[in-house]
Amino acid sequence: MPTQPDFVGAIDQGTTSTRFMVFDQDGNEVARHQLEHQQVLPRAGWVEHNPVEIWERTSAVVQTALGKARLTADDLAAIGITNQRETTLVWDRRTGRPLHNAIVWQDTRTDGIAAALDRDGRGDVIRQRAGLPPATYFSGGKLQWLLENVDGLRAAAESGDALFGTADTWLVWHLTGGPDGGVHVTDVTNASRTMLMDLETLDWDDELLGFFDVPRAMLPDIRESSAGSNGPYGVTRSSGPLGGEVPITGILGDQQAATVGQVCFEPGEAKNTYGTGNFLLLNTGTELVRSRSGLLTTPAYQLGDDPCVYALEGSIAVTGSAVQWLRDQLGVISGAAQSEALARQVDDNGGVYFVPAFSGLFAPYWRSDARGVIVGLSRFNTNAHLARATLEAICYQSRDVVEAMCQDSGVTLEVLKVDGGVTANELCMQIQADVLGVPVSRPVVPETTALGAAYAAGLSVGYWADTDELRRNWAEDRRWEPAWDEGRREDGYRRWKRAVERTLDWVEVESL
Asked: I want to staple 360 with a disulfide (CB 3.0 to 4.6 A). Which of 338, 351, 368, 386 is the partner?
Protein backbone atom coordinates (compact mmCIF):
# COMPACT_ATOMS: atom_id res chain seq x y z
CA MET A 1 0.00 0.00 0.00
CA PRO A 2 1.54 3.39 -0.98
CA THR A 3 2.48 5.76 1.84
CA GLN A 4 0.75 9.10 2.19
CA PRO A 5 2.76 12.13 1.03
CA ASP A 6 4.57 13.87 3.88
CA PHE A 7 4.80 17.44 2.58
CA VAL A 8 3.15 20.31 0.69
CA GLY A 9 5.00 22.51 -1.81
CA ALA A 10 4.55 26.18 -2.67
CA ILE A 11 5.74 28.25 -5.61
CA ASP A 12 6.20 31.90 -4.62
CA GLN A 13 6.60 33.93 -7.81
CA GLY A 14 7.50 37.44 -6.66
CA THR A 15 8.43 40.74 -8.22
CA THR A 16 12.18 40.28 -7.99
CA SER A 17 12.58 36.52 -7.52
CA THR A 18 10.91 33.12 -7.59
CA ARG A 19 11.24 30.51 -4.88
CA PHE A 20 9.96 27.02 -4.22
CA MET A 21 9.45 25.92 -0.62
CA VAL A 22 8.36 22.65 0.94
CA PHE A 23 6.58 22.51 4.34
CA ASP A 24 5.74 19.75 6.79
CA GLN A 25 2.62 19.21 8.92
CA ASP A 26 3.79 21.72 11.56
CA GLY A 27 4.36 24.45 8.98
CA ASN A 28 8.14 24.09 9.21
CA GLU A 29 10.35 24.67 6.17
CA VAL A 30 11.83 21.45 4.75
CA ALA A 31 13.38 22.73 1.52
CA ARG A 32 13.85 25.98 -0.38
CA HIS A 33 15.53 27.39 -3.45
CA GLN A 34 15.28 30.91 -4.84
CA LEU A 35 16.45 32.75 -7.96
CA GLU A 36 16.17 36.38 -8.99
CA HIS A 37 15.01 37.46 -12.43
CA GLN A 38 15.80 40.53 -14.47
CA GLN A 39 13.97 43.84 -14.07
CA VAL A 40 13.47 45.20 -17.60
CA LEU A 41 13.26 49.03 -17.61
CA PRO A 42 12.64 50.19 -21.20
CA ARG A 43 12.06 53.82 -20.21
CA ALA A 44 11.28 55.96 -17.17
CA GLY A 45 8.21 54.62 -15.38
CA TRP A 46 8.08 51.38 -17.38
CA VAL A 47 8.80 48.07 -15.62
CA GLU A 48 8.66 44.70 -17.38
CA HIS A 49 9.56 41.05 -16.84
CA ASN A 50 10.39 38.35 -19.36
CA PRO A 51 7.66 35.65 -18.97
CA VAL A 52 9.92 32.95 -20.40
CA GLU A 53 12.60 33.78 -17.83
CA ILE A 54 9.99 33.56 -15.04
CA TRP A 55 8.90 30.10 -16.21
CA GLU A 56 12.52 28.95 -16.52
CA ARG A 57 13.36 30.28 -13.04
CA THR A 58 10.27 28.54 -11.64
CA SER A 59 11.29 25.24 -13.20
CA ALA A 60 14.82 25.62 -11.86
CA VAL A 61 13.86 26.43 -8.26
CA VAL A 62 11.40 23.52 -8.12
CA GLN A 63 13.94 21.02 -9.43
CA THR A 64 16.78 22.33 -7.25
CA ALA A 65 14.77 22.46 -4.01
CA LEU A 66 13.46 18.94 -4.49
CA GLY A 67 16.92 17.70 -5.45
CA LYS A 68 18.63 19.24 -2.42
CA ALA A 69 16.06 17.69 -0.07
CA ARG A 70 16.04 14.36 -1.98
CA LEU A 71 12.31 14.61 -2.52
CA THR A 72 10.15 13.64 -5.50
CA ALA A 73 6.62 14.45 -6.64
CA ASP A 74 5.42 11.41 -4.67
CA ASP A 75 6.41 13.17 -1.44
CA LEU A 76 4.03 16.09 -2.10
CA ALA A 77 0.33 15.94 -1.22
CA ALA A 78 -0.34 19.09 -3.25
CA ILE A 79 1.24 22.36 -4.34
CA GLY A 80 0.04 25.92 -4.03
CA ILE A 81 1.01 29.00 -5.98
CA THR A 82 1.34 32.57 -4.78
CA ASN A 83 2.42 35.45 -6.95
CA GLN A 84 3.02 39.12 -7.61
CA ARG A 85 -0.50 40.18 -8.34
CA GLU A 86 -1.33 42.85 -10.92
CA THR A 87 1.57 42.03 -13.26
CA THR A 88 -0.05 41.40 -16.66
CA LEU A 89 0.88 38.69 -19.19
CA VAL A 90 -0.50 37.79 -22.62
CA TRP A 91 0.49 34.72 -24.63
CA ASP A 92 -0.44 32.53 -27.58
CA ARG A 93 -2.62 29.58 -26.59
CA ARG A 94 -1.28 27.44 -29.47
CA THR A 95 2.46 27.94 -28.90
CA GLY A 96 2.83 29.28 -25.35
CA ARG A 97 4.88 32.15 -26.76
CA PRO A 98 4.52 35.46 -24.86
CA LEU A 99 3.08 38.19 -27.08
CA HIS A 100 4.83 40.93 -25.07
CA ASN A 101 6.91 41.21 -21.93
CA ALA A 102 4.89 41.10 -18.72
CA ILE A 103 3.92 44.61 -17.59
CA VAL A 104 4.72 44.78 -13.87
CA TRP A 105 2.38 46.22 -11.24
CA GLN A 106 4.82 49.11 -10.60
CA ASP A 107 4.63 50.26 -14.25
CA THR A 108 3.08 53.70 -14.81
CA ARG A 109 2.59 53.78 -18.60
CA THR A 110 -1.19 53.61 -18.16
CA ASP A 111 -1.41 56.98 -16.36
CA GLY A 112 -3.51 58.42 -19.17
CA ILE A 113 -5.93 55.48 -19.13
CA ALA A 114 -6.44 55.76 -15.37
CA ALA A 115 -6.97 59.54 -15.56
CA ALA A 116 -9.56 59.16 -18.34
CA LEU A 117 -11.57 56.70 -16.25
CA ASP A 118 -11.93 59.24 -13.48
CA ARG A 119 -12.73 62.14 -15.79
CA ASP A 120 -15.85 60.58 -17.28
CA GLY A 121 -17.32 58.91 -14.20
CA ARG A 122 -16.35 55.30 -14.96
CA GLY A 123 -13.99 55.46 -12.00
CA ASP A 124 -16.89 55.61 -9.55
CA VAL A 125 -18.39 52.44 -11.05
CA ILE A 126 -15.03 50.69 -10.73
CA ARG A 127 -14.70 51.78 -7.09
CA GLN A 128 -18.15 50.48 -6.22
CA ARG A 129 -18.08 47.24 -8.19
CA ALA A 130 -14.40 46.21 -8.08
CA GLY A 131 -13.40 47.92 -4.79
CA LEU A 132 -10.45 49.64 -6.48
CA PRO A 133 -9.65 53.19 -7.57
CA PRO A 134 -8.66 53.63 -11.22
CA ALA A 135 -4.87 53.48 -11.01
CA THR A 136 -1.84 52.37 -12.98
CA TYR A 137 -1.34 49.66 -10.33
CA PHE A 138 -4.09 47.33 -11.55
CA SER A 139 -4.20 44.90 -14.49
CA GLY A 140 -7.16 46.22 -16.49
CA GLY A 141 -5.39 49.31 -17.79
CA LYS A 142 -2.25 47.32 -18.59
CA LEU A 143 -4.31 44.83 -20.59
CA GLN A 144 -6.04 47.66 -22.46
CA TRP A 145 -2.63 49.14 -23.31
CA LEU A 146 -1.41 45.79 -24.66
CA LEU A 147 -4.56 45.30 -26.76
CA GLU A 148 -4.06 48.76 -28.25
CA ASN A 149 -0.31 48.53 -28.84
CA VAL A 150 0.61 44.92 -29.72
CA ASP A 151 0.02 44.13 -33.39
CA GLY A 152 -2.54 41.39 -33.91
CA LEU A 153 -3.29 40.94 -30.21
CA ARG A 154 -6.90 42.13 -30.30
CA ALA A 155 -7.88 39.81 -33.14
CA ALA A 156 -6.14 36.88 -31.43
CA ALA A 157 -7.85 37.74 -28.14
CA GLU A 158 -11.31 37.86 -29.70
CA SER A 159 -10.76 34.47 -31.33
CA GLY A 160 -9.53 32.92 -28.07
CA ASP A 161 -6.00 32.36 -29.38
CA ALA A 162 -4.47 35.00 -27.07
CA LEU A 163 -4.70 34.40 -23.33
CA PHE A 164 -4.43 36.86 -20.44
CA GLY A 165 -3.31 36.07 -16.94
CA THR A 166 -1.39 37.17 -13.91
CA ALA A 167 1.72 35.19 -12.92
CA ASP A 168 -0.30 32.44 -11.21
CA THR A 169 -2.28 31.82 -14.41
CA TRP A 170 0.89 31.71 -16.52
CA LEU A 171 2.50 29.13 -14.21
CA VAL A 172 -0.56 26.88 -13.78
CA TRP A 173 -1.03 26.84 -17.55
CA HIS A 174 2.56 25.68 -18.09
CA LEU A 175 2.60 23.20 -15.20
CA THR A 176 -0.55 21.50 -16.50
CA GLY A 177 0.62 21.10 -20.08
CA GLY A 178 0.90 24.52 -21.70
CA PRO A 179 -0.15 24.29 -25.38
CA ASP A 180 -1.02 20.64 -24.76
CA GLY A 181 -4.13 21.09 -22.61
CA GLY A 182 -2.86 23.64 -20.08
CA VAL A 183 -5.49 24.83 -17.59
CA HIS A 184 -6.38 28.55 -17.87
CA VAL A 185 -7.42 29.56 -14.36
CA THR A 186 -6.95 32.13 -11.59
CA ASP A 187 -8.45 32.67 -8.13
CA VAL A 188 -10.67 35.35 -6.63
CA THR A 189 -7.78 37.24 -5.01
CA ASN A 190 -5.85 37.69 -8.25
CA ALA A 191 -8.95 38.34 -10.36
CA SER A 192 -9.99 41.07 -7.94
CA ARG A 193 -6.86 43.09 -8.81
CA THR A 194 -7.81 43.61 -12.45
CA MET A 195 -10.63 46.22 -12.14
CA LEU A 196 -12.63 43.66 -14.17
CA MET A 197 -14.22 41.49 -11.43
CA ASP A 198 -17.40 42.22 -9.46
CA LEU A 199 -16.62 41.82 -5.74
CA GLU A 200 -20.08 40.49 -4.97
CA THR A 201 -20.56 37.98 -7.81
CA LEU A 202 -16.85 37.02 -7.89
CA ASP A 203 -17.08 36.88 -11.69
CA TRP A 204 -15.91 38.98 -14.63
CA ASP A 205 -18.28 41.91 -15.12
CA ASP A 206 -19.43 42.76 -18.65
CA GLU A 207 -19.71 46.50 -18.00
CA LEU A 208 -16.20 46.64 -16.52
CA LEU A 209 -14.86 44.62 -19.46
CA GLY A 210 -16.47 47.18 -21.73
CA PHE A 211 -14.69 50.06 -19.97
CA PHE A 212 -11.35 48.53 -21.01
CA ASP A 213 -12.57 46.89 -24.24
CA VAL A 214 -11.34 43.47 -23.06
CA PRO A 215 -12.66 40.35 -24.84
CA ARG A 216 -14.02 37.81 -22.33
CA ALA A 217 -12.57 34.98 -24.46
CA MET A 218 -9.01 35.79 -23.31
CA LEU A 219 -9.80 35.67 -19.57
CA PRO A 220 -9.13 32.74 -17.22
CA ASP A 221 -11.80 30.95 -15.19
CA ILE A 222 -12.09 32.33 -11.65
CA ARG A 223 -11.86 29.71 -8.89
CA GLU A 224 -11.70 29.70 -5.10
CA SER A 225 -8.31 30.20 -3.38
CA SER A 226 -8.29 26.68 -1.93
CA ALA A 227 -9.84 24.19 -4.33
CA GLY A 228 -13.25 22.96 -3.17
CA SER A 229 -15.67 20.26 -4.21
CA ASN A 230 -14.93 20.81 -7.90
CA GLY A 231 -11.49 19.31 -7.31
CA PRO A 232 -7.99 20.56 -8.16
CA TYR A 233 -7.41 23.34 -10.68
CA GLY A 234 -5.23 20.84 -12.51
CA VAL A 235 -2.46 18.27 -12.10
CA THR A 236 1.21 18.79 -12.94
CA ARG A 237 2.60 16.86 -15.90
CA SER A 238 5.28 14.23 -15.36
CA SER A 239 7.33 15.93 -18.05
CA GLY A 240 7.38 19.18 -16.07
CA PRO A 241 9.74 20.41 -13.33
CA LEU A 242 8.14 18.31 -10.56
CA GLY A 243 8.77 15.14 -12.54
CA GLY A 244 5.40 13.69 -11.54
CA GLU A 245 1.69 14.27 -11.10
CA VAL A 246 0.82 16.54 -8.17
CA PRO A 247 -2.56 18.28 -7.72
CA ILE A 248 -2.47 22.09 -7.81
CA THR A 249 -5.03 23.08 -5.18
CA GLY A 250 -4.09 26.51 -3.87
CA ILE A 251 -3.78 29.91 -5.55
CA LEU A 252 -3.49 33.20 -3.66
CA GLY A 253 -2.13 36.59 -4.57
CA ASP A 254 0.98 37.19 -2.50
CA GLN A 255 -0.54 39.52 0.09
CA GLN A 256 -3.60 37.39 0.62
CA ALA A 257 -1.29 34.37 0.94
CA ALA A 258 0.61 36.15 3.70
CA THR A 259 -2.71 36.86 5.44
CA VAL A 260 -3.42 33.11 5.45
CA GLY A 261 0.16 32.34 6.46
CA GLN A 262 -0.19 34.73 9.40
CA VAL A 263 -3.47 32.93 10.30
CA CYS A 264 -5.48 36.16 10.24
CA PHE A 265 -8.75 34.25 10.05
CA GLU A 266 -10.86 36.44 12.37
CA PRO A 267 -12.32 39.88 11.60
CA GLY A 268 -10.04 42.57 13.03
CA GLU A 269 -6.80 40.59 12.61
CA ALA A 270 -4.16 42.33 10.48
CA LYS A 271 -0.74 41.66 8.99
CA ASN A 272 1.86 43.76 7.19
CA THR A 273 4.14 42.20 4.58
CA TYR A 274 7.47 43.90 3.85
CA GLY A 275 8.70 43.01 0.39
CA THR A 276 9.28 45.03 -2.76
CA GLY A 277 6.36 47.10 -1.50
CA ASN A 278 4.39 46.95 1.76
CA PHE A 279 0.92 45.53 1.99
CA LEU A 280 -1.22 45.74 5.11
CA LEU A 281 -4.43 43.68 5.18
CA LEU A 282 -7.20 43.76 7.78
CA ASN A 283 -9.69 40.87 7.82
CA THR A 284 -13.30 42.20 7.71
CA GLY A 285 -15.01 38.79 7.53
CA THR A 286 -17.67 37.99 4.95
CA GLU A 287 -18.77 41.64 5.00
CA LEU A 288 -17.71 44.04 2.23
CA VAL A 289 -16.37 47.19 3.93
CA ARG A 290 -16.18 50.14 1.54
CA SER A 291 -13.20 52.37 2.27
CA ARG A 292 -13.64 56.10 2.77
CA SER A 293 -9.94 56.66 3.43
CA GLY A 294 -8.12 55.52 0.32
CA LEU A 295 -7.87 51.79 1.01
CA LEU A 296 -8.84 48.88 -1.23
CA THR A 297 -11.71 46.49 -0.60
CA THR A 298 -10.49 43.07 -1.66
CA PRO A 299 -11.07 39.34 -1.17
CA ALA A 300 -8.74 38.02 1.52
CA TYR A 301 -9.34 34.37 0.59
CA GLN A 302 -12.01 31.83 -0.28
CA LEU A 303 -11.35 28.43 1.26
CA GLY A 304 -13.08 25.59 -0.56
CA ASP A 305 -16.85 25.93 -0.74
CA ASP A 306 -17.01 28.46 2.12
CA PRO A 307 -18.08 32.06 1.46
CA CYS A 308 -15.44 34.57 0.40
CA VAL A 309 -13.74 36.44 3.26
CA TYR A 310 -12.91 40.08 2.52
CA ALA A 311 -10.28 42.54 3.70
CA LEU A 312 -9.30 46.18 3.66
CA GLU A 313 -5.86 46.59 2.10
CA GLY A 314 -3.33 49.36 2.12
CA SER A 315 -0.85 48.94 -0.75
CA ILE A 316 2.48 50.80 -0.72
CA ALA A 317 4.48 50.69 -3.95
CA VAL A 318 8.07 51.15 -2.80
CA THR A 319 9.55 49.92 0.50
CA GLY A 320 12.06 47.06 0.18
CA SER A 321 12.75 48.17 -3.38
CA ALA A 322 13.92 51.53 -1.98
CA VAL A 323 16.71 49.61 -0.23
CA GLN A 324 17.48 47.90 -3.56
CA TRP A 325 17.62 51.37 -5.14
CA LEU A 326 20.30 52.39 -2.63
CA ARG A 327 22.24 49.27 -3.69
CA ASP A 328 21.68 49.12 -7.44
CA GLN A 329 21.20 52.70 -8.61
CA LEU A 330 23.17 54.75 -6.05
CA GLY A 331 25.79 52.24 -4.89
CA VAL A 332 25.38 53.48 -1.30
CA ILE A 333 25.35 49.90 0.00
CA SER A 334 26.66 46.64 -1.44
CA GLY A 335 23.81 44.48 -0.13
CA ALA A 336 20.41 44.85 1.53
CA ALA A 337 21.77 43.67 4.90
CA GLN A 338 24.28 46.52 4.91
CA SER A 339 21.44 49.07 5.11
CA GLU A 340 20.91 48.18 8.77
CA ALA A 341 24.59 48.45 9.72
CA LEU A 342 24.92 51.79 7.92
CA ALA A 343 21.73 53.22 9.45
CA ARG A 344 22.88 52.18 12.95
CA GLN A 345 25.81 54.58 12.64
CA VAL A 346 23.44 57.46 13.46
CA ASP A 347 20.85 57.92 16.22
CA ASP A 348 18.25 59.61 14.01
CA ASN A 349 17.66 60.76 10.44
CA GLY A 350 19.51 64.07 10.88
CA GLY A 351 16.46 65.90 9.52
CA VAL A 352 16.40 63.90 6.25
CA TYR A 353 13.14 62.46 4.93
CA PHE A 354 12.96 60.25 1.84
CA VAL A 355 9.61 59.63 0.15
CA PRO A 356 10.26 56.93 -2.50
CA ALA A 357 7.30 57.72 -4.76
CA PHE A 358 9.03 56.22 -7.80
CA SER A 359 5.71 54.97 -9.22
CA GLY A 360 3.52 57.65 -7.69
CA LEU A 361 1.92 57.15 -4.29
CA PHE A 362 -0.44 54.24 -3.59
CA ALA A 363 -2.60 53.97 -0.45
CA PRO A 364 -3.96 56.08 1.04
CA TYR A 365 -3.09 58.91 -1.40
CA TRP A 366 -3.48 57.34 -4.88
CA ARG A 367 -1.50 60.10 -6.58
CA SER A 368 0.08 58.97 -9.84
CA ASP A 369 1.46 62.50 -10.31
CA ALA A 370 3.82 62.08 -7.33
CA ARG A 371 7.52 61.28 -7.69
CA GLY A 372 10.26 60.55 -5.16
CA VAL A 373 11.90 63.26 -3.07
CA ILE A 374 14.68 63.53 -0.49
CA VAL A 375 14.20 66.61 1.67
CA GLY A 376 15.90 68.24 4.63
CA LEU A 377 19.46 67.77 3.39
CA SER A 378 22.30 69.81 4.87
CA ARG A 379 26.08 69.58 4.62
CA PHE A 380 25.98 67.70 7.94
CA ASN A 381 24.20 64.67 6.43
CA THR A 382 25.94 61.44 5.43
CA ASN A 383 25.06 58.24 3.63
CA ALA A 384 24.11 56.83 7.06
CA HIS A 385 21.35 59.44 7.39
CA LEU A 386 20.06 58.48 3.94
CA ALA A 387 20.07 54.80 4.89
CA ARG A 388 18.17 55.60 8.09
CA ALA A 389 15.70 57.80 6.20
CA THR A 390 15.07 54.90 3.81
CA LEU A 391 14.17 52.57 6.67
CA GLU A 392 12.00 55.26 8.23
CA ALA A 393 10.20 55.74 4.89
CA ILE A 394 9.14 52.08 5.03
CA CYS A 395 7.70 52.63 8.49
CA TYR A 396 6.04 56.01 7.93
CA GLN A 397 4.28 54.75 4.81
CA SER A 398 2.95 51.87 6.90
CA ARG A 399 1.67 54.33 9.50
CA ASP A 400 -0.19 56.23 6.77
CA VAL A 401 -2.05 53.01 5.97
CA VAL A 402 -2.69 52.08 9.62
CA GLU A 403 -4.22 55.53 10.23
CA ALA A 404 -6.57 55.06 7.25
CA MET A 405 -7.46 51.52 8.31
CA CYS A 406 -8.42 52.62 11.81
CA GLN A 407 -10.64 55.36 10.36
CA ASP A 408 -12.44 52.92 8.05
CA SER A 409 -12.86 49.99 10.40
CA GLY A 410 -13.03 51.62 13.83
CA VAL A 411 -10.49 49.00 14.98
CA THR A 412 -7.60 50.23 17.11
CA LEU A 413 -4.45 48.33 16.28
CA GLU A 414 -3.02 46.59 19.34
CA VAL A 415 -0.19 44.64 17.75
CA LEU A 416 1.13 44.48 14.16
CA LYS A 417 2.00 41.03 12.76
CA VAL A 418 4.83 41.41 10.26
CA ASP A 419 6.46 39.16 7.67
CA GLY A 420 8.58 39.33 4.54
CA GLY A 421 12.24 39.84 3.79
CA VAL A 422 12.62 43.29 5.36
CA THR A 423 11.64 41.90 8.77
CA ALA A 424 15.17 40.50 9.00
CA ASN A 425 16.25 44.15 9.45
CA GLU A 426 15.82 44.46 13.20
CA LEU A 427 16.45 48.20 13.26
CA CYS A 428 13.67 48.72 10.73
CA MET A 429 11.27 46.69 12.88
CA GLN A 430 12.22 48.71 15.96
CA ILE A 431 11.59 51.94 14.03
CA GLN A 432 8.21 50.52 12.94
CA ALA A 433 7.21 49.97 16.57
CA ASP A 434 8.44 53.46 17.43
CA VAL A 435 6.56 55.14 14.57
CA LEU A 436 3.29 53.28 15.25
CA GLY A 437 3.43 53.25 19.04
CA VAL A 438 2.37 49.57 19.16
CA PRO A 439 4.32 46.30 19.45
CA VAL A 440 5.53 44.61 16.27
CA SER A 441 5.48 40.79 16.17
CA ARG A 442 7.44 38.56 13.77
CA PRO A 443 6.58 34.84 13.47
CA VAL A 444 9.04 31.96 13.52
CA VAL A 445 8.43 31.46 9.78
CA PRO A 446 8.84 35.02 8.39
CA GLU A 447 8.22 34.03 4.76
CA THR A 448 4.49 33.57 5.33
CA THR A 449 3.59 34.19 1.69
CA ALA A 450 4.78 30.75 0.57
CA LEU A 451 3.41 29.22 3.77
CA GLY A 452 -0.05 30.67 3.06
CA ALA A 453 -0.06 29.16 -0.43
CA ALA A 454 0.94 25.81 1.06
CA TYR A 455 -1.84 26.10 3.67
CA ALA A 456 -4.45 26.80 0.96
CA ALA A 457 -3.27 23.79 -1.05
CA GLY A 458 -3.04 21.48 1.95
CA LEU A 459 -6.48 22.37 3.32
CA SER A 460 -8.01 21.40 -0.02
CA VAL A 461 -6.65 17.83 0.09
CA GLY A 462 -7.09 17.29 3.84
CA TYR A 463 -3.38 17.51 4.66
CA TRP A 464 -4.45 20.02 7.31
CA ALA A 465 -7.88 19.49 8.84
CA ASP A 466 -8.99 23.08 9.36
CA THR A 467 -7.86 26.63 10.14
CA ASP A 468 -7.65 25.81 13.86
CA GLU A 469 -4.81 23.41 13.09
CA LEU A 470 -3.05 26.15 11.12
CA ARG A 471 -3.47 28.59 14.00
CA ARG A 472 -1.75 26.13 16.34
CA ASN A 473 1.27 26.15 14.01
CA TRP A 474 1.82 29.91 14.39
CA ALA A 475 4.52 30.96 16.88
CA GLU A 476 6.18 34.30 17.66
CA ASP A 477 9.89 34.62 17.04
CA ARG A 478 10.56 38.22 18.10
CA ARG A 479 8.64 41.23 19.42
CA TRP A 480 9.68 44.88 19.33
CA GLU A 481 8.19 47.34 21.83
CA PRO A 482 7.94 51.10 21.11
CA ALA A 483 10.81 53.15 22.58
CA TRP A 484 10.00 56.69 21.34
CA ASP A 485 7.94 59.02 23.51
CA GLU A 486 4.74 60.49 22.08
CA GLY A 487 6.34 63.86 21.34
CA ARG A 488 9.08 62.38 19.15
CA ARG A 489 6.58 60.08 17.44
CA GLU A 490 4.18 62.85 16.47
CA ASP A 491 6.90 65.33 15.49
CA GLY A 492 8.45 62.76 13.17
CA TYR A 493 5.11 61.94 11.59
CA ARG A 494 4.25 65.62 11.09
CA ARG A 495 7.54 66.15 9.24
CA TRP A 496 6.90 63.02 7.17
CA LYS A 497 3.53 64.41 6.06
CA ARG A 498 5.24 67.64 5.00
CA ALA A 499 7.74 65.62 2.95
CA VAL A 500 4.88 63.75 1.24
CA GLU A 501 3.38 67.08 0.18
CA ARG A 502 6.62 67.88 -1.68
CA THR A 503 6.15 64.83 -3.96
CA LEU A 504 2.79 65.92 -5.39
CA ASP A 505 2.01 67.52 -8.77
CA TRP A 506 5.41 66.57 -10.21
CA VAL A 507 4.15 64.69 -13.28
CA GLU A 508 1.50 66.18 -15.55
CA VAL A 509 -0.74 63.12 -15.89
CA GLU A 510 -3.06 64.74 -18.46
CA SER A 511 -0.23 64.96 -20.96
CA LEU A 512 0.81 61.30 -20.76
From this structure: 368
